[in-house]
Task: inverse folding
């Protein structure tokens, strides 16, 4: 096999997540951006506890619950349902299941903390949950064509040896409700500004995508990140990305 031959390895789950290897083992990858607290639409009817909404919910902080309020928009109207436990009641679960997909679900917990203080005062813990569509945005021409487009219009124009060790660059972009590419940002610059320019230009000229969509047909914006280089870079965790499924 010639040294400069291009190796393409496509890793697919259900949709169009992929890793690619270009000349000199230069890797590139597109992943979706996921809010720090989010839930897939198809999991809404499986929510029973606060931990189901947020896997990092700090149950160990709580000695006694005073109130647990779920607030969500239903048919455009803000609605609230209250309980007194981290185990949600039927009214709370029903509100979550029927929540408008385009709005966050808000949670407000009033509790007595688990501590040894003589005068234990009521504390408040708030968080919001973003509902994620099960149908991700997708490259209209197909996965293989997307790989070929990025390779032809950006990767092959990057000089061999430009990325060494843990070097990584990341470019964030948004697919709109109409499938257009917008808001292209260099969120993790490379050592060479010319490389970032090559990647940004390729993304800006990329053909349209199919937009992300909820089960009710509602189309929404979705953010993605193109990474080039070593994904073992410790800064990857700051990108909040996951493979497209």
Result:
């Amino acid at each position: 096999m010639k040294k400069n031959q291009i190796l393409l390895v496509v890793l697919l789950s259900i949709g169009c997540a992929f890793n690619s290897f270009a000349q000199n083992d230069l890797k590139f990858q597109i992943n979706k951006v996921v809010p720090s607290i989010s839930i897939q639409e198809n999991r809404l009817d499986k929510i029973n506890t606060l931990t189901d909404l947020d896997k990092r919910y700090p149950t160990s902080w709580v000695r006694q619950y005073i109130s647990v309020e779920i607030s969500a928009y239903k048919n455009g109207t803000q609605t609230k349902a209250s309980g007194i436990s981290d185990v949600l009641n039927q009214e709370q679960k029903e509100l979550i299941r029927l929540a408008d997909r385009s709005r966050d679900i808000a949670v407000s917990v009033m509790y007595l903390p688990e501590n040894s203080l003589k005068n234990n005062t009521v504390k408040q813990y708030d968080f919001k949950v973003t509902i994620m569509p099960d149908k991700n945005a997708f490259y209209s021409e197909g996965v293989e064509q997307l790989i070929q487009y990025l390779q032809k219009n950006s990767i092959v124009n990057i000089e061999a040896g430009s990325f060494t060790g843990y070097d990584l660059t990341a470019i964030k972009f948004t697919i709109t409700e109409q499938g257009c590419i917008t808001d292209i940002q260099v969120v993790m610059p490379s050592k060479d500004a010319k490389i970032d320019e090559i990647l940004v230009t390729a993304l800006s000229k990329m053909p349209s995508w199919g937009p992300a969509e909820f089960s009710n047909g509602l189309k929404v914006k979705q953010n993605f990140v193109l990474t080039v280089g070593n994904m073992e870079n410790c800064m990857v965790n700051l990108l909040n990305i996951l493979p497209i499924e």
